[in-house]
Amino acid sequence: MLFEPLISPFIEFAFMRRALVGCLALSLAAPPLGVFLVLRRLSLIGDALGHAILPGVALGATLGGLSLAAMSAGGLVAGLAIVLLAGLAARGTGLREDASLAGFYLVALALGVVIVSAGSPGVDLMDLLFGAVLGVDDGALLFIASVATLTLVSLALMWRPLVVETFDPGFLRHAGGGGVAWHLMFLALVVLTLVAAFHALGTLMAVGLMMLPATGARFWSATVGGQVVAAVMMAMVASVLGLVVSFHADVPSGPAIVLAAGALWVAGLLAGPRGSLLRQRISRPHLAG
Amino acid sequence: MRRAPSPITLANVTVAYDRQPAVHHVSGTFRPGSLTAIVGPNGAGKTTLVKAITGAARVDEGRIDRGGLAPSDIAYLPQQAVLDRSFPISCLDVVLMGHWRRVGLFRRIGPTLLREAEEALEAVGLGGFGDRPIATVSAGQFQRLLFARILLEDCPVVVLDEPFTAIDAKTTADLLGVVSRWHGEGRTVIAVLHDHDLVRAHFPNTLLVAREAIAWGSTPEVLTASNALRARQMAEAWAESAAVCARAA
Question: What is the CATH number of domain B1-69+158-163+190-249?
């Protein structure tokens, strides 16, 4: 049967099923955040935050062993602290927020590597950076699903102000709709989702599932909602494809998923229905006006 | 209109950036329902002044009395808004933002509010543009869109910062029609402008600034050659190493 290689790994092996469910849950939560990061011109912030949570995760792992709770709590605290510090430094001094964040995350990354190398020998830096999707246990799965749920519900509740604030922050602030609070709540969701994703994909690869479908989404839709749907679908397809390829070709699953997302992004860039290279090349007769 | 306009009174207002005053000891009153142009050379503090009026800039000295109105009761169109015109949003959705004060976070935008938005689009000459992505409209059409949004905001005071810069004559004429409509409805309208002929033709009152208020009153009395000369001289006399201003507060 044609689709047999696509399905059989998930039928035969429980660890593959758990990996699939975890990645699909992340595919629901991460790409919508990525779409807003792209629209807010903060595409690289996800990357910075991915690095920023490393010292917290490493410290949690060193102090609490490789326990889910200790590593998650550490990552969350570190990520939120850096978002707040960078925001405060930027607003207090006029330093641009991306520059401020770059400074903080580089320090955090170096600190994380120092902690990992000085810490217990049981902590593997490669696992922290690139994840171990095939080792996702029930506890991690529950955590990922909870975070995905919280993220989706929060996004639904703050959708209107977030869209307006992304498009015209001055208008929202002037109309009394708030400003900085939405920005910080949004970044907190990004940190939370990255912390959940790192259990499956590692701190570095988690960003791939968030940003690649989001950057590809603009080749598929002309509305924010449409781009969110497109990004979620791409992430889900990438999750399935990546896991299957990783199973059959015996390559690490995190990078395989991100590579699959990358392939979908390139496909959209080349041939998507909106503004892709192919679309611009096809010369269709202009309309009568 | 949700609230009646009240006088906006500036009492000895100074706004400084890094201690350099951009607006220096300006006093006067925008009467309720008045239509006033703010003119002056580049760097004269026009934008800073309207930012102070709308609450977007902090007043260093003196005070602004908005007669009980909150800054959010003032509709404000910033200078050549630095908006991302490739943002994936439809024209209708941009105009609907004007309902923010009524619908807030969660309230439904029902048929009445939708019809108001369609009517606002019609009023600025963009009937039928609702579903189009903003990426497909021209700079002039985008400015019409922002005017439609202000129509929905329905504020007693409207402040426009250089609304007709880089806008063609037809669009300017149409948007001036919208300004007259606001004036006719009794709203207070304040607009920063450069074109003195346009000001003479359409704005009964003028405030000429060059950091300080050079003249404030009826347009023919304000826009004289001698006033313009004084404004230019004031704007050019910008001292890098000025002493601390000793004028009494």
Answer: 3.40.50.300
